[in-house]
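To whoever is on call:

I kicked off a structure prediction for a single chain this morning and the downstream step that reads the tokens threw a length-mismatch warning. I double-checked the sequence; it's 196 residues and nothing unusual in it as far as I can see. Pasting both halves so you can look.
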Amino acid sequence: MDENEAAAGRTAPRKRADARRNVEALLDAAAAVFVASGVEAPVRDIAAEAGVGMGTIYRHFPTRADLIIAVYRHQVEACAEAGPALLAAAPTPHAALAGWIDLFVDFLVTKHGLAAALRSDDAGLAALHAHFLDRLVPVCARLLEAAVDAGEIRSDLEAYALMRGVGNLCIGADGDPRYDARRLVGLLVAGLRQAV
């Protein structure tokens, strides 16, 4: 291997890491725009938020469905990774659970409009939903288990039921400015506390 090949080998992983970070920043920008304007927001708004040209978005995500799916998967992964981090950093397991539920609410708001946007691909939606459950239910279960083990919350609730309840409280939040889903979810999480 000559000097040029060795130099190319050293820079290739850095370029890949930079490209990955750029795509993640693009997905974060798209998620922010989706929260503010829904999944039908113009691509130019996403490009402006990300600070890139529209061509960059289309190069990575040729269709709106590709972008929506990528944002959804990116947020599922971020939510899944946040659980253990919150459990390690929060002062109590209940605080970690409450923090994670806040992130989960943000995720649910972002995914608003996903089904309508992908209506033509029912199999794809089923796969996304399965991915969502596979990644997030175990994280929520671990947070609940830690809070139960610490004696902070009641033990008669399963992760799926809690996530479903949170999801139901978030339905329609965008249709009525007087409806505060986050406050209601906060009351639900506070209500899990063990009576002393």
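Update from on-call: the warning came from a stale cache, not from the record. Cleared it. Sanity check on the structure: The longest helix spans residues 3-37.
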